[in-house]
Write a structure and sequence with these properties.
Helices cover about 25% and strands about 30% of the residues. By secondary structure, the protein is α+β, with helices and mostly antiparallel strands. A hairpin with a 2-residue loop joins strand 4 and strand 5. Belongs to the polypeptide deformylase family.
Length: about 190
């Protein structure tokens, strides 16, 4: 297990839809451990593989003392009830904006061994599951904001210490370079 650097807003991997996991092997189990350790080290409620530069459909969560992960999640919503509250992202540090989400969610997928799992979430867990699944689709929570809130969030991002609009992504060696993770190269964040 290793804490990995988190990709920041502007990194193209955050806007690229992730591929389904096909191989439930040692590489995937290492990725899951890296996701959980990095998420907990950063104090986050969730972390998706693209945030570590890995384009696979897997994320970890830590909400209300429930820690876990889900691979290849498919979401359904048992009702139309909504919630509106502050949402942030480890890839957009320090920016929190009220964001509408569904109050209740059911996520069907798999664990790291390929066994079917179902996660039923409400409130904060539901928000987390929807947020992380969005990451797997190349969607950021900023995309869910109305135009005025998005404009304000973008202003905050442009003035944030971590944001560097002039620095292009660099190429680094992927720590998950063999097996299901592809060629071993990816563009890094800042």
């Amino acid at each position: 297990m290793t804490v990995q650097p988190i990709r920041l807003f502007g990194d193209p991997v955050l806007r690229t839809p992730a591929d389904d996991v096909a191989d439930f092997d040692k590489e995937l189990r290492k990725l899951v451990k890296d996701l959980i350790e990095t998420m907990q080290d950063e104090g986050g409620a969730g972390l998706a593989a693209p945030q570590l530069g890995v384009g696979l459909r897997v994320f970890s969560f830590d909400v209300d003392d429930v820690v876990g992960h889900i691979v290849n999640p498919v979401l359904s919503f048992p009702d139309e009830e909504e919630q509106d509250g502050p949402e942030g992202c480890l890839s957009i540090p320090g920016i929190y904006v009220d964001t509408k989400r569904r109050q209740n969610v059911v996520a069907n997928g798999f664990n790291e061994f390929g066994d079917p799992v179902q996660l039923v979430g409400t409130g904060m867990m539901s928000r987390c599951v929807q947020h992380e699944t969005d990451h797997l689709d190349g969607v950021l929570f900023l995309d869910r904001l109305d135009s005025a809130a998005r404009k304000d969030a973008m202003r905050q991002i442009r003035t944030a210490d971590w944001y560097d609009a002039g620095k292009p992504p660099t190429i680094k060696e992927n720590p998950h370079s063999s097996g299901i993770f592809g060629s071993g190269l990816f563009s890094s964040g800042r």
